[in-house]
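The step that takes the researchers longest sounds almost clerical: writing a folded protein down as plain text. Below is the pair of lines this work produces for a single protein:

——
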Amino acid sequence: MKKMILSAGFIALACFAQASNPQLIVQRIDNHGLVNGQTYRLYCALEQGSSVQVVFGDESHPLSIRTEGALFQHDFGGHTSASINEALSQSTPALKYDSWLTLGFENSYNNELWELGMDYSGFVSNNQMTVDNGGWFLVPTSAKCQPNAEGLILLGQFTTSGVVSGTLNIKGKDAAKQTWIANDLSFSTTQAIDFGCNDKAATNYAPEAAYHDAASCSYKNGQSPVSGSIQSALISDWSVFPNPLRGDQINIQLTESMDVAAVKPTLQIVDQSGKIVFKMDVQPSDVSNNRLTVQQSLSAGTYQIIWTQAAASSSKTLVVQK
């Protein structure tokens, strides 16, 4: 009976519309050598105003998470963030890098996470978990359903000596409060990127960071960054990810805030023969959290991504692997 109830609840999600541009992003975390292996955090990146409520697997779209190496699980930790005691992690630093699943919450404080039909025994026995009749979720009124200032919702943390990869299904609501569902979203720690402050005005400016983490920026005398500080005649530093690209979603991360309406930038994708395969005039509504997302199906090969503004251009190489 329990299996039938769970199936009805999760399979019913399939009647909803497809999500608009959710993406899984893996962040590389410095664990300072306190534990063996590398630590990663998994996020769902969303459009402005969207939210996530459920991460699930069903018979048609199983959820799977696997690792090719040992997965670190602390004796004082657990399988979800609800088991992570923040006070204890202060006295036991290695606990901060335990492996767990979540939806927004980093520890047990006021944690509202629920789970149904989850079997974690596969992780213990063979470092693989498959869910075809369950998932984890929050009630729709939880504040953690909403993305943070960078447009991200935390879904999990993994510390491993190998590669972690998987496939998730996610349900949420868009800015118009319409329910959406995204099936078979994949991730791999081989595509992990570094987060950091891309604002040149900050004291901790990190040009090597592929994802701008505004919350991490520090400024002299506690000053805040100046909105639209980039001059219209200058090209901001920028990056493209994931690179290599294996899907259809290309992210352009700008390092500084930009008055898009004033500088009127354009974006082009050029193949190896010099043919322009994609071109767009970037509008203010296209850029969120200093990031432009482009959906474009490209054949395997090497491309140039060209950003132009105020008659000046800058290019990056993108490798597509399919």
